[in-house]
Amino acid sequence: MSRSSLLVGLLLLSSAATAQKSPFTYQDLIQVDRISGLQVDPAGQRALYGVRATDLEKNKGVSSLWLKDLRQPERPAVRLAVGDSGAVGAQWGPDGKHLYFLRAKRGTMQVWRADAAGSTMEQLTHLPLDVQAFRVSPDGQGLVVVVAVFPDAKDDEILGTAAKLEEKKMGSGTVYDRVFVRHWDTWADGTRNHLFHIALPREGADAKAVPVALTPGFDGDVPGKPFGDEGDFSLSPDAKWVYFSAREAGTTEPWSTNFDIFRVPLAGGAPENLTYRNKAWDASPRPSPDGTRLAYKAMKRPGFEADRFQLRVLNADGSVTFVGEGWDRSVDDFQWTADGTGFYLTAGDRGSTRLFHCDIQSGKVTTLSGNGHIDAFARTPTAFVYLKSAMDSPSQLYLAAPKTVRVDDRPTKLTDVNAKLATKAFGAYEQFRFIGWNNDTVHGYVVKPANYVEGRKYPVAFLIHGGPQGSFGDMWSYRWNAQTYAGAGYAVVMIDFHGSTGYGQAFTDAISTHWGDRPLEDLQKGWAHVLKAYPFLDGDRAAALGASYGGFMVNWIAGVWKAPWKCLVSHDGVFDARGMGYTTEEQWFSTWENGADVLTDPAAYDTFNPALHAKDWSVPTLIIHSDLDHRIPVEQGIGAFTALQARRVPSLFLRFPDENHWVLKPRNSMQWHDTVFGWLDRYIGKGAQ
């Protein structure tokens, strides 16, 4: 055989091998392992992280703990035995010799400690109530724990709460004298997350010291509900102070975004409000390495949850330094540099979430990473360790020397979780831009179907993100994953319309009181753009899908822009804006987004109210909603389905009695995807041909 013939043969074999790759599907997505919880030891030598696998048969996630030696990255990670017993929220102790984590045993979640190898463990707390979150003091002498208690349990909040909960078991009724009566997916029971300090004895002995209440009687949650965690509180390097972010409830809690930064002595005392002058949101208190300053994130506008988070530094003399004020991005996560002169931080930026460095004195911000999504990071004395995902890759752990221009230019990959995905075909994707509302540049992504064939036209899934202050960017998602649509043979279009994050605060602000016009114009112009720019998109076979705000927009376009769509999917979408204003739990959201309180100006809620256009609905629509969704209550979905049925429009209603604003249980997720893709197939897929 000639050399040229051999080369042709090898190329054919390579091509055949590539063609044999099966598309990535939603069945694959549900089985993908999830890596998270990056923690690097104080010396920067070992990385601790968690992996969540899915047990579809038992309908639950199964978590494990892993340890990676950063000094020898070629060595495989080690699975820790203690992680298999149900370790949650693992973190390093200040000596680097111990791991601390939460574990449920005999009915309550408590703090445990293990050796650094994760081979032996001991229980540290023995409280009658669950520990919700915790931190180890910098001197290793104690724990600050979060316990949900009744604030009026005067003598001993923990014991008093345990006794009162036993009494409440005798009856099922609850009397409320103020809202929140429910939040996210839970009805209020009167308890508040409070902080307690527990002194630790020598190793090998139980921590049975009496907990010291750090927030006794405080009318608020530390951390805040429903998504707060140990990032909402911290300890000073000398272990004398606890700093925390909290909102005092009163009777205005559902209308207020006024979180403040407080400090309280670790020995106990009255909390001091350090940021009372700012009536907007203050969050994430982080003391400087030398303990003389306190950094935190702050918004400027009260009542607006999507305002820009800017870094501020509270100095020892009480003055406040505004850091990087001219940089028009909102800070997600941040940490001090070792010398205290600046910060490493992450922020959304034009469809990606990047790593940045910000200098305090000059305010200069330097970009340290490229495309993709930095999920978590840590700076060691010699390198960066980070988790990063992309639209075609779940998160993996990487190590990078900071000498490179960007940390992800030539990183060392430390994990190969989900190695089996190498056998799957993903859709190629690219970012595009066009001129949208107000002649502004608007960005979006287009994804080709897996195993794309040049010259062929494909049906289109037009995905609309929620928030509305959010983004469908270059990141991996376990719910609205563009690659599952690509794997099913659909091209995907996603547009970051006005209101999206990562393009400057003015761009984000543009959607408030304009839910149905400015973003709609972006979607319409974006749709026209992609049909001209990408000939493989079949504009005659297209469906629009969205959740939350995206569900609202689907309900909205069903009445005002239905021409392009053969079918629609609305998940947890707003149907009746007035009803939403009265029944959603976080009232500040509806008030800000509609520009008025529903009580005083209900007409403002009718400007972009899908219910008022339901008489014009005619596109086949799948409605999905869940009973535990208190953000957009299930009646919104029922109302939309009722309107469709009354109009005799082909429609289905998928209801989950045990899910919230998201669908989290594996088998429910499978049913969600089965139903959605079955609906698409009927109208724009193979079933429609």
List the helices and strands and how they pair.
Blueprint: H1 3-19, E1 22-23, H2 26-31, E2 34-40, E3 46-55, E4 60-69, E5 78-80, E6 88-92, E7 98-105, E8 108-115, E9 121-123, E10 131-136, E11 142-149, H3 157-168, E12 182-183, E13 186-187, E14 192-199, E15 212-213, E16 233-235, E17 241-246, E18 260-265, E19 272-273, E20 282-287, E21 294-298, E22 310-314, E23 320-323, E24 331-336, E25 342-349, E26 352-359, E27 365-367, E28 373-379, E29 384-390, E30 393-400, E31 412-413, E32 424-425, E33 429-435, E34 441-447, E35 458-464, H4 482-487, E36 491-496, H5 505-509, H6 518-533, E37 537-547, H7 549-560, E38 567-571, H8 577-583, H9 587-594, E39 621-626, H10 634-646, E40 651-656, H11 666-683
Parallel strand pairs: 1-32, 35-36, 35-37, 37-38, 38-39, 39-40
Antiparallel strand pairs: 2-3, 3-4, 4-5, 6-7, 7-8, 8-9, 10-11, 11-14, 12-13, 14-15, 16-17, 17-18, 18-19, 20-21, 21-22, 22-23, 24-25, 25-26, 26-27, 28-29, 29-30, 30-31, 33-34, 34-36
What features would you describe in this structure?
The structure is a single chain. The chain is an alpha+beta fold and 689 residues long. Among the domains are: 48-123, no CATH class; 424-688, Rossmann fold (3-Layer(aba) Sandwich). 17% of the residues lie in helices and 33% in strands. It contains eleven helices and 40 strands. The protein has an eight-stranded mixed sheet with strand order 33-34-36-35-37-38-39-40, sandwiched between helices. Strands 2-3-4-5 form a four-stranded antiparallel sheet, with no helix packed on it. Strands 6-7-8-9 form a four-stranded antiparallel sheet, with no helix packed on it. The longest helix is centred in the C-terminal third of the chain and has 18 residues, at 666-683. The radius of gyration is 26 Å and the shape is globular. The two termini are 46 Å apart. The model is unreliable at 1-18 (pLDDT under 50).
